[in-house]
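We treat protein structure as text, and this decision shapes the records that our systems exchange. Because each token names a local backbone shape, the row as a whole describes the fold. An entry from our holdings is shown next, in its original layout:
>
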Amino acid sequence: MDSAGQDINLNSPNKGLLSDSMTDVPVDAAVAAQAPAVEGLTETEAEELRAELAKVEEEIVTLRQVLAAKERHCGELKRKLGLSTLEGLKQNLSRSWHDMQVSNAYKKTQETLSQAGQKTSAALSTMGSAISRKLGDMRNSATFKSFEDRVGTIKSKVVGGRENGGDNLPSPTGSGDRPLPDHIPF
């Protein structure tokens, strides 16, 4: 066995055996920076890629600075024109609302809700008619007529007693020479 390829860690279970995964690792940091990052690249190609990377990073920094300057300039122009952040927000909301209204999902939802409203309206109308019919039937029933007669009798006794006592309430029949008061308490 070659002593340079042997595992020299005394605690290793592979003591003295060759390691297939071990490669020569440079100790010097400057040498490590010069080592090719990807297998198959020559030293010249790696240096060209590093130079290009540095150039692209510089361009990114420059573009960020230019963008920040443009955003400041845009803000100044808006301020001079009287356009506030609130105005921009209103425009964005208006545009978003318009975009939403012309979307297919909105149109389908609107149609569905419209149909549901029409069906609900028809159901409520039918229910209202049924309730009116039932109340009409109930009013024409003998029990209700008897109840109505009793209430009428009690009312005429109460109102008739007030009329004799000098109160200005009209009689239940509406007869009499006195005009009806503007405000009748219940």
Confidence is low (pLDDT under 50) at residues 1-7, 15-32. Helices lie at 29-34, 43-81, 85-101, 104-139, 142-164. The first helix runs from residue 29 to 34.
